[in-house]
C-alpha cells in the first residue's frame, strides 16, 4: 500500500465528523467538505440528547430495540435498528473518549415513546450555564480533526463515477469556482431536507418537501436552511434508491416567538421540557393529549383538537401576569416585562394560529430541567411567568376553578391514557408557572438514501454503489414512520463511524 485511500465526506454535522475521525483513524486521507461557512449543521442545534441502553434504569437492548421498532410503525429496517441499539453504549463511550473525558452526558431523561429514561444530555457547567448537548458534542469532535483536510464554503454539485459504475470523486464549487476532486470513496453525511419549507427553494427548484409531503409546506421548521436535501439529490443522481421520502416528522412543540409569530423558522421547545413535567393546555385550559406520547400522536392531537388558544389577547394579559409574577417572587432571572412589551407590538397570522397550545411548566419542572437552561428561552421572550393558579387562570383567560380542577385531576394520576407524571402541577395554589405558546413544526426527515448495515448506499436492484456510503439524516431505514427523540444523534455516531471505517478499508480489499 503506497498511497492511502482518499475518502471524501460531504457534510460537517455529527455524522460527517464521526465518519472523518474514524476514516482517518483507519489510515485514509480524509477530505471533509462543508458548504456553509462553519461546520455543525443541524447537529449543533440538538437539545434533548443522545440515547443509549441505560442499565441504571433497567433498560435492555431488547427494550430499546422494541421501542424503536414500535415507533417506526412497520417501516423501519430491523437490521439497521438492531445495529443502532447494540452499538449505542459503545457510541457514547467513544464520544466521551474523544473528549478525553471532559464531555459530561450524565443527565438522563425519559422522552416520548421511550419506556425508560435513556436520553443523555450535558450537565450545566461549573458557572451554572447550560451546555447544549449538540453543541458540546460538535465542539468535542471538532478538536479531533487533526490530519483531516476541512474545506468550508465548498458545496458538492455531483458525485462522479467511471464507466464501470465505481465512484471516483466529486465535482464541487467554492467561491464560484468549480473543480473536481478524486477519491476512492465518498460518504454522504449531508443531513435531511426539512430546512426548505415552501414550494420552491432559493434556486427556483421545487423543494423536496413540497414534492413528497405537500400538505406540510405551510408549517414552520426547526431546521436550519442548510438542510436542503442536496444529499438526496446527489445520491439519486448517482443511482441510489430512495426510501420513505414522504415520512416527515412534525415536532409538536416549536416556540412561537411573540415578536415574530409567523417566522418560518422556530426555536424548538425541546421534548425534555415535557419529560420534566411541562403540560399542554388548549384555549380553554384543558389538557388534550398525553404529553409524553409519541411525536406523531402529539402532533396529530394539535391538528385535530378544536380549541386552540386565541393568542391576540395573550400578550396584553401576559404583561400584567408577568408583572404580578415578578412581584410574587425574586426567582425571576430575566426580563419577563421586556418580553411582554416587545410582544404587544405584534400580531398573529392565520398560519401560526392554526394549531397552537399553551406549554405550561410548574416551578418544580423548571427546577428539574434547570432554570439556567430555561433562562435562554426566557430571555428570547418565549416564556411568561404566572403567579399561582390565579395568575395562570388570568393569563389563559379561563376560570380559576376549572383550571384548578384540571390540574388537580392530573395530580390524582387517574388519567388512564397517561402513565408518566414527572411532577405535580399544583403542589399548592401559589407556585410559579412558566407559560409559552407552541405550535407543530417540520423537524426531521425520516426518508432518504437506502443503506445497508455497512452504510453502503444501495441501488434499486439492492446492489451497493461501489465507493458510495451514507450516514445520518440523509439515510433512511432506522426510524421508519417516527423517529424517537435521541435516536438521530445516536444514528449519526453509529453509522458515521461505520461509514468512515468501511470507506477507509474496503477499497484495497476489493482489488
Ligand atoms: C432544533 C433541533 C433539535 C434537535 N434535537 C435532537 C436531539 O436532541 N437528539 C437527536 O437525536 N436529534 C435531534 N435533532 C435531530 C438531529 O440534530 C439531526 O437529525 C442530526 O444532527 C443530523 O445530523 P447529520 O450529520 O446527518 O446532518 P447535519 O448536522 O444537518 O449536517 C449536515 C451538513 O451537511 C452540509 N451539506 C449539505 N449539503 C451539502 C453539499 N452539497 N455540499 C457540502 N456540504 C453540504 C450542511 O450544510 C450541514 O452542515 C434535532 C434537530 C433539530 C433541528
Ligand atoms: C430496577 O429493577 C429492580 C429489580 O426489579 C428494582 O428494584 C429497581 O427499583 C429498578 N430500578 C429502576 C430505576 O426502575
Ligand atoms: C473504474 O475505476 C476502478 C477503480 O479505479 C477501475 O478498476 C476500473 O477499471 C475503472 N473502470 C473504467 C471503465 O475506467
TrEMBL record:
Family annotation (Pfam families): FAD_binding_2
Cofactors: FAD
Coiled-coil stretches: none
Annotated spans, Disordered: 304-347
Compositionally biased residues, Low complexity: 330-347
Domain FAD-dependent oxidoreductase 2 FAD-binding: 7-489
Keywords (A to Z) from UniProt: FAD, Flavoprotein, Oxidoreductase
InterPro entries linked to this entry: FAD-dep_OxRdtase_2_FAD-bd, FAD-oxidoreductase_2, FAD/NAD-bd_sf, Succ_DH/fumarate_Rdtase_cat_sf
GO molecular function, a single term: oxidoreductase activity
Protein name: FAD-dependent oxidoreductase 2 FAD-binding domain-containing protein
Organism: Phycomyces blakesleeanus (strain ATCC 8743b / DSM 1359 / FGSC 10004 / NBRC 33097 / NRRL 1555)
Top-level taxonomy: Eukaryota, Fungi, Fungi incertae sedis, Mucoromycota, Mucoromycotina
Amino acid at each position: 500500500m503506497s498511497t492511502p485511500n482518499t475518502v471524501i465526506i460531504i457534510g460537517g454535522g455529527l455524522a460527517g465528523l464521526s465518519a472523518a475521525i474514524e476514516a482517518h483513524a483507519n489510515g485514509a486521507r480524509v477530505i471533509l467538505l462543508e458548504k456553509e461557512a462553519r461546520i455543525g449543521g443541524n447537529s449543533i442545534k440538538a437539545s434533548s440528547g443522545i440515547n443509549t441502553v441505560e442499565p441504571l434504569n433497567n433498560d435492555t437492548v431488547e427494550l430499546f430495540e422494541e421501542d424503536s421498532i414500535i415507533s417506526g410503525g412497520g417501516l423501519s429496517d430491523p437490521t439497521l435498528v438492531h445495529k443502532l441499539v447494540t452499538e449505542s453504549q459503545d457510541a457514547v463511550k467513544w464520544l466521551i473518549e474523544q473528549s478525553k473525558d471532559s464531555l459530561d452526558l450524565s443527565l438522563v431523561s425519559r422522552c416520548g415513546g421511550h419506556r425508560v429514561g435513556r436520553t443523555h444530555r450535558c450537565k450545566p457547567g461549573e458557572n451554572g450555564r447550560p451546555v447544549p448537548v449538540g453543541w458540546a458534542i460538535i465542539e468535542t469532535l471538532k478538536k479531533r480533526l487533526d490530519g483531516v483536510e476541512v474545506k468550508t464554503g465548498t458545496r458538492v454539485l455531483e458525485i462522479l463515477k467511471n464507466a464501470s459504475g465505481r465512484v471516483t470523486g466529486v465535482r464541487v464549487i467554492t467561491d464560484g469556482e468549480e473543480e473536481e476532486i478524486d477519491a476512492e470513496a465518498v460518504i454522504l453525511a449531508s443531513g435531511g431536507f426539512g430546512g426548505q419549507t415552501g414550494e420552491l427553494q432559493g434556486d427556483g427548484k421545487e423543494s423536496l418537501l413540497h414534492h413528497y409531503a405537500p400538505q406540510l409546506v405551510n408549517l414552520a421548521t426547526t431546521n436550519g436552511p442548510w438542510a436542503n436535501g442536496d444529499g438526496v439529490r446527489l445520491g439519486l443522481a448517482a443511482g441510489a434508491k430512495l426510501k420513505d421520502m414522504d415520512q416527515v416528522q412534525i415536532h409538536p412543540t416549536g416556540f412561537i416567538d411573540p415578536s415574530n409569530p409567523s417566522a418560518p423558522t422556530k426555536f424548538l421547545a425541546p421534548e425534555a421540557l415535557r419529560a420534566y413535567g411541562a403540560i399542554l393546555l388548549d384555549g380553554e385550559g384543558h389538557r388534550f393529549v398525553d404529553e409524553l406520547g409519541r411525536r406523531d400522536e402529539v402532533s396529530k392531537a394539535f391538528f385535530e383538537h378544536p380549541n386552540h388558544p386565541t393568542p391576540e389577547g395573550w400578550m396584553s394579559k401576559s404583561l400584567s401576569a408577568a408583572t404580578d409574577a415578578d412581584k410574587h417572587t425574586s426567582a425571576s432571572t430575566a426580563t419577563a416585562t421586556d418580553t411582554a412589551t416587545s410582544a404587544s407590538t405584534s400580531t398573529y397570522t392565520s398560519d401560526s394560529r392554526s394549531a397552537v397550545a399553551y406549554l405550561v411548566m410548574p416551578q418544580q419542572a423548571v427546577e428539574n430541567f434547570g432554570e439556567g437552561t430555561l433562562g435562554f428561552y426566557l430571555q428570547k421572550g418565549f416564556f411568561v411567568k404566572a403567579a399561582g393558579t390565579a395568575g395562570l387562570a388570568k393569563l389563559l383567560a379561563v376560570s380559576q376553578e376549572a383550571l384548578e380542577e384540571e390540574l388537580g385531576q392530573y395530580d390524582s394520576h387517574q388519567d388512564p391514557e397517561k402513565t408518566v407524571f414527572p411532577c405535580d402541577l399544583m403542589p399548592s395554589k401559589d407556585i410559579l408557572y412558566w407559560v409559552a405558546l407552541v405550535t407543530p413544526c417540520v423537524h426531521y426527515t425520516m426518508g432518504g438514501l437506502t443503506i445497508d448495515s455497512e452504510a453502503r448506499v444501495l441501488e434499486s436492484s439492492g446492489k451497493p454503489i461501489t465507493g458510495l456510503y451514507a450516514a445520518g439524516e440523509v439515510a433512511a431505514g432506522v426510524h421508519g414512520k417516527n423517529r424517537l427523540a435521541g435516536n438521530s444523534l445516536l444514528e449519526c455516531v453509529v453509522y458515521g463511524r461505520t461509514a468512515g471505517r468501511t470507506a477507509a478499508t474496503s477499497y484495497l480489499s476489493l482489488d
